[in-house]
Design brief:
The complex is a heterodimer of chains A (about 260) and B (about 70). Chain A has about 260 residues and is α/β, with parallel strands linked by helices. Helices cover about 35% and strands about 15% of the residues of chain A. Chain A contains nine helices and ten strands. In chain A, helix 1 runs parallel beside helix 9. The model of chain A has no long low-confidence stretch (mean pLDDT about 95). Chain B is mostly beta strands. Chain B has one domain: Roll (Ubiquitin-like (UB roll)), CATH 3.10.20. Chain B is built from one helix and five strands. Chain B has a five-stranded mixed β-sheet, with no helix packed on it. In chain B, a hairpin with a 2-residue loop joins strand 1 and strand 2. The longest helix of chain B has 7 residues. The model of chain B has no long low-confidence stretch (mean pLDDT about 95). The chains are: A alpha/beta (about 260), B mainly beta (about 70). At the A-B interface, strand 4 and helix 3 of A face strand 3 and strand 5 of B.
């Protein structure tokens, strides 16, 4: 398993679990959960500085250092291509030219479902501008392929709605997307518990990105550890190749040599 | 002179630069990005870039997100 690396935009990673930094109780819990998850790529959001507010609160990037983690700024909260592009440009300035971004353009506040028209428009502009785009998408195999062909470095279909914990709602589509892909396919959003993460990996996904499944657990640090193991177990299971399903029983113990 | 800082009106001296503003806010050296009227003002320009009346200034940083 040592050689089984995740490669995104030419960079190798040992962990196939990517985690968000939102919704934690405090910075200590954020740091401990991310440490326990073993993740090497960590998402952050870009927002206005709190002027005159909580001056003692530590800066997230002092806790989650870009020297230790690959920081993946997201465009969460953006509903137009323009806002998403602007957010990525600010993120690149903030991170001294670091150009790996998670593009998400949302379509609706109730579902946070991606607006694929604006997502494609933003991806085109960002790729031309030199960004390496990991793109949040609907689980439509045709759209996913289109995003790959445009030059996105990773395609990230939702497994369920953001923050819903509904699990892998349409494994067939995720499988279709993975089958024809030549870039990493990551399940992004929807995972609720460790078995969901394992299922995503057993389908053959290259990695999983999650936030609420860990941060929203009763014990986030313990869940982070569970997710790490589920991702590893799911990956090994995929590589091992599961046995075929059968309609009837097949005895595990030999019939020969019975004495009764 | 008045500018808008992160959406709120703010009065600054006519010669105010990005660096002057960051100094006043006590956030020099922090990981942040500055935008004026939707154009990035890069770190190398912070000392030289002076605001104009009505500039819309955004100063952003990284926070927790998924």
């Amino acid at each position: 398993m040592q050689d089984d690396k995740l490669i995104i935009a030419g960079k190798e990673y040992n962990s196939r679990l990517l985690v968000g930094t939102g919704k934690y109780k405090d910075m200590d819990e954020t740091r401990d959960a991310i440490e326990a998850s073993g993740a090497e790529i960590v998402t952050v959001a870009i927002r206005r500085t709190n002027i005159g507010q909580n001056p003692d609160e530590p800066n997230l990037l002092d806790v989650i250092s870009p020297d230790k983690y690959t920081i993946l700024p997201n465009t969460a909260g953006c509903y137009t291509a323009k806002d998403a592009v602007r957010t990525c440009q600010l993120a690149r300035e903030l991170l001294d030219g670091h150009d790996l971004v998670k593009l998400e353009v949302l379509g609706d506040q109730k579902t946070l479902y991606p607006n694929m028209v604006d997502t494609i428009e933003a991806a085109e502009i960002l790729i031309k501008d030199g960004f390496k785009v990991m793109v949040y998408t609907s689980d439509d195999p045709i759209i996913a392929k289109r995003l790959e062909e445009m030059g996105c470095v990773a395609v990230m279909p939702l497994a369920g709605l953001i923050g819903s914990g509904l699990g892998i709602c349409n494994p067939h589509n995720i499988r279709l997307i993975k089958e024809s892909a030549n870039v990493p396919i990551l399940v992004d959003a929807g995972v609720g518990t460790a078995s969901d993460a394992a299922i995503a990996m057993e389908i053959g996904c290259d990695a999983v990105l999650m936030n609420t499944a860990i941060a929203g657990a009763k014990k986030p640090v313990l869940m982070a550890s569970a997710m790490k193991k589920a991702i590893e177990a799911g990956r090994e299971s995929f590589l091992a190749g599961r046995m075929p399903k059968k309609a009837y029983a097949s005895a595990s113990s030999p019939i020969d040599g019975t004495f009764f | 002179m008045n500018i808008f800082l992160n959406g709120d009106p703010k009065e600054v001296v006519d010669t105010c630069t990005v660096m002057d503003l960051l100094t006043e806010m006590d956030i020099v050296g922090q990981r942040l990005a500055v935008e004026v009227n939707e154009e990035i003002v890069s770190k190398s320009q912070h000392t030289d870039y002076s605001f104009s009346e009505g500039d819309k200034v955004e100063i952003v940083h990284a926070i927790g997100g998924g």
